[in-house]
């Protein structure tokens, strides 16, 4: 069973049909929407400020989401996929974005709708990634504009697949939505 911990008077709020892996950790001022999946060894640490997660978001294994005390919050829109071992620290990730494995997204960065952050990239504080663009590298820089329909199709497919994967675990563990 996932570790869900209250701190500073904040108890995590978890939507309907959410899969929490056995060793996921959700702490403090965290709100998770519906149809999300929070995978193994993921930490959502809302101890120093708030974390808001939309609907149909998958946060994959080993990811850490945190904020700066009194200075930044983390906001994640709907239909977002966050790859394995990602760090999101006080950033805003808009609807339909994809954050590749081992990427780092720092405070006050904004990842636009349908944008893609390449695996291993570091998005520096305050960077604004335009909607529908690919950014990559260290520090992350513009690579190219995506075809909006292709981007939406890829990102929605990943989000739907993770909803399906989480269903497998719920069935095997006897969890109900």
| Helicity range | 10-25%
> What does the average pLDDT come to?
94
What is the H-and-E element order? EEEEEEEEEEEEEEEEEEEEH
List low-confidence stretches: none
Number of helices: 1
Gap between N and C termini, in Å?
14 Å
Question: How much of the polypeptide forms β-strand, as a percent range?
Answer: 35-45%
The quaternary structure here is: single chain
Number of strands: 20
Give me the Rg, rounded. 15 Å
Helix-strand category: alpha/beta
Biggest sheet statistics: 12 strands, parallel
Shape annotation: globular
Task: Please give a structural write-up.
This protein is of the alpha/beta class and 177 residues long. Helices cover 15% and strands 36% of the residues. The protein has one helix and 20 strands. The protein has one helix at 148-173, and strands at residues 3-5, 13-14, 19-20, 25-32, 37-38, 43-53, 58-59, 64-66, 74-76, 81-82, 87-89, 92-93, 98-99, 104-105, 110-111, 116-117, 122-123, 128-129, 133-136, 141-145. Strands 1, 2, 4, 6, 8, 9, 11, 12, 14, 15, 17 and 18 form a twelve-stranded parallel β-sheet that branches. The radius of gyration is 15 Å and the shape is globular. The two termini are 14 Å apart. The mean pLDDT is 94.
Topology (elements, then pairings):
Layout: E1 3-5, E2 13-14, E3 19-20, E4 25-32, E5 37-38, E6 43-53, E7 58-59, E8 64-66, E9 74-76, E10 81-82, E11 87-89, E12 92-93, E13 98-99, E14 104-105, E15 110-111, E16 116-117, E17 122-123, E18 128-129, E19 133-136, E20 141-145, H1 148-173
Parallel strand pairs: 1-4, 2-4, 3-5, 4-6, 5-7, 6-8, 6-9, 7-10, 8-11, 9-12, 10-13, 11-14, 12-15, 13-16, 14-17, 15-18, 16-19
Antiparallel strand pairs: 19-20
């Amino acid at each position: 069973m996932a570790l869900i911990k209250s701190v500073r008077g904040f108890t995590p709020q978890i939507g309907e049909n959410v899969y929490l892996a056995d060793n996921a950790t959700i702490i403090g001022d965290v709100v998770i929407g519906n149809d999300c999946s929070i995978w193994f060894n993921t930490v959502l640490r809302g101890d120093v400020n708030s974390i808001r997660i939309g609907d149909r978001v998958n946060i994959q294994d080993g990811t850490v989401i945190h904020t700066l005390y009194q200075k930044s919050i983390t906001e994640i829109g709907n239909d977002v996929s966050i790859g394995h071992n990602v760090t999101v620290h006080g950033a805003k990730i808009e609807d339909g974005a994809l954050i590749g494995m081992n990427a780092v997204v720092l405070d006050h960065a904004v990842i636009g709708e349908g944008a893609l952050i390449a695996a291993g990239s570091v998005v520096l504080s305050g960077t604004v990634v335009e909607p529908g663009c690919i950014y990559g590298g260290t520090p992350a820089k513009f690579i190219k504009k995506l075809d909006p329909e292709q981007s939406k199709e890829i990102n929605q497919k990943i989000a739907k697949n993770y909803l399906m994967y989480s269903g497998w675990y719920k069935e095997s563990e006897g969890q109900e939505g």
